[in-house]
Amino acid sequence: MAYHRASETKREQFRRYLEKAGVLDSLTSVLVALYEETEKPNNALDFLKQHLGVASQESADAEALRQELNEMRQRCELLMEENKGLKNKVKAGRG
Predict the structure, then answer these.
(1) 54-88 burial, b for 16+ CB within 10 Å, e for fewer?
(2) PANTHER family, per this entry (predicted)?
(3) In a 10 Å sphere around its CB, with 0-12 CB exposed, 13-18 middle and 19+ buried, how is residue 47 labelled?
């Protein structure tokens, strides 16, 4: 009996982990898309891989955009410092 309860607890923890990570929602969405296909694909596994791959591609794109944003922020800071220095030179030349 104790083994059965421990097993159920582990299953429940794993289910909560999958739910929290968004895995269950992603799988459910893909399975619903497969269900709603009027012409079922010959290879359901390829259908799942293809549709789940879209999410990983989106996350790769998002990561690339995050990196570009960080680079642009750094460049902006450098340009602002350069601008400040040039303004100070202009002021010094007038005074």
Answers:
(1) eeeeeeeeeeeeeeeeeeeeeeeeeeeeeeeeeee
(2) ASSOCIATE OF C-MYC AMY-1 (PTHR13168), C-MYC-BINDING PROTEIN (PTHR13168:SF0)
(3) middle
pLDDT digits (tens, 9 = 90+) for 8-66: 889 999 999 999 999 999 899 999 999 999 999 999 988 988 888 765 666 778 888 99
What DSSP line would sit under the chain, residue for residue?
A: -HHHHHHHHHHHHHHHHHHHTTHHHHHHHHHHHHHH-SS--S-HHHHHHHHHHHHHHHHHHHHHHHHHHHHHHHHHHHHHHHHHHHHHHHHHHH-
- Full-prediction pTM beyond 0.85? no
Q: Amino acid identity, residue 46?
A: D
- Measured distance CA(73)–CA(65) in Å, rounded: 12
